[in-house]
Amino acid sequence: MSKLVLIATAIAGVVLLSSLSVTSNSTEMSKVVGDTNGRWTQSELLTLASLRISALPPTPKDASNAFENLPAAADLGKRIFSDERFSSNGAVSCASCHDPKKQFQDGRALGKGVGIGARRAMPLAELGHNAWFFWDGRKDSIWAQSLGPLEDSVEHGGNRLAYAHVMQANYQSEYEAIFGPMPDLGRLPRNAGPNGSPSEQAAWNAIDATTRNQISRIFANMGKAIATYEKTLHYGESRFDRYVEGVLKQDPAAMQLLKPQEINGLRIYIGKGGCVTCHGGPLLTDQYFHNTGVPPRDPAKPDHGRSVALAKVLNDEFNCLGQFSDAKHDQCQELRFMAKEDRGMEGAFKVPSLRNVALRPPYMHAGQIGTLNEVIHHYISAPKAAVGHSERKPLRLSETEITDIVAFLGSISGPIIETPVKK
Prior knowledge:
By secondary structure, this protein is mostly helical. Helix content is 37%, strand content 3%. Residues 72-234, 260-413 form the Cytochrome c domain.
């Protein structure tokens, strides 16, 4: 997916540059565009053009979710997303860790549901451009990802049958209008599930296979409704995006939107800092997994990241190739051709989007680093990884340059926009 994004944005940049009459002969190659605060070469302009949110292609369709084009599914998913009844204590919803008032995150180092998790909550905007989900990529669709926290003992802490009962009692008509008739659950116990407590698992195993499948189907459809809603969340333009548009169009007013310090930080970001290597494209991420030597919260229990998740996604009953997926076999290429073993994934974690990054400290997969200034210090010092091998190499940046990068990162904050589903 990230390769497609980069190709599309590069093409967009070329088209825009042609309107500036920047040609490819040796003289014109050195031509600069900008004002006294920021002069950019053709090569730099191509990079800047590729980073604009307006260069992001339309959100790809998920073949494994046949209901994502239904407005009614998005409406139902939004209601489930904020409903605290879908938890063991009646006090936790998806919005608890992904608060719409807090950029759909919670500001915590570690997620807090019915207990405390091992990692922090990830951003939700533009999830449809991802191929893998969670910090370790153990899920291969938004709807499969949505189901994980519901059965996790420290997140929602509930079980599959309890959720089916809540759906039948409170959302039956809305559910059946989208997914078809629900089975009669009246004769079944209140709690049962394959991933719950020993008593819940025993109750689950006592239910016949056909009924278990029907309950799991309700559960999967809950995830598909949540996913349909979450795919409506998009990043809006930031001050940085408007600045780049202004430079490309030679708009004097827009070219003043970034301060000299922010422009210098941007220049380092795409240049000597090398930030754009992993944080490129319109979403400022390559959507891949990297080991950058981030220290574990507990040195005695290092997190192995992506390497452990490979088996999990392959064996997930809700993956693209599973019985609850709506995709055909040949539409699951990411999963089918995923490397089954990759030593480079030891201690590797997903690169998150940097959009709105200044609004959501602390940082890294378990909130180990408190400020953006400290994050950059970590990257330039390039410490040895606790597990696996860090890809980072030491880099020399002055304190002024570090401060400038941090200033630039503050310019890429923008609104999160909920866009209605279009059939």
